[in-house]
Task: structure prediction
Amino acid sequence: MRIRTIYIILFIIIPSAFLHSQEVTKDTTYNSIATTRILNMLKPGKAPKVTLQLSFDYNIGHLDLAANENTYFRKEDFVSGANFGTRYGYGASLTGKIALHKEGNVRLNVTTGFNRFMSNFVIAESPEGKVSYNVFSWGLGIENNFTPQNKFKPYIGLEFVASLIGGNATLTTDSTDFDLKIKNSLRFGVTFNMGIEYAFNNKVGFNLGYKITHANILGKKSQAQTTLNETYLNDDKLKPGESIQYAGWKQFMYSSFYLGIDFYFGMKNKK
Result:
């Protein structure tokens, strides 16, 4: 009787123990795979000698480039020089990042970009008219990459920027449109940049970040029109008693949220 009882107990316990061991093994295997994947994501390698970064931007204006917040384009504000008449925009940039030493933390950045701002982008078109600006920019600066040999690469940088800013406006009065060309004006400023890269492999990765640009710190100028249908950026202070249409002390400042793709050159995994 005792022997039969022992056999019954063993018959119940052994399969249960076997099944439990299989579950433990399965869980261990899954955990091992997950751990391996995480470690591979963080696996260090050789920092790239050159990174080519292509990014696409969504722009939000600040200060005098922050007109039309939750409202339409206002002709009176634009004509009087109170603001630039627009707020939102989009753009793209191409940046070459060159490592200045073997570790790759410090990089020299060379950037070219294009941004467009429109008073009827995101916000509905105003019955008083509309205005748009095209901004062609070129930058040169320094960037610090905190973990250049890892797949995750957070960075922060500063660039000196030259911008060629021009555009067009349409002013509406009693259903009559008046077209105005804003002639290209060269301005100088700075861009503060921060973001993160993730390297899929030794060749390609993606980037995500934020930057803020003050495009017209230097070079401000206001001057009278030479023809009725043309004006200038007119962003400088007017002298006492001076009156110039569309002119006033204005700051061309904007934030950009960007997403893009990276191409790496000279990057290898450590063996």
In short: Residues 1-42 form one domain. Residues 22 and 28 are 10 Å apart (CA to CA).
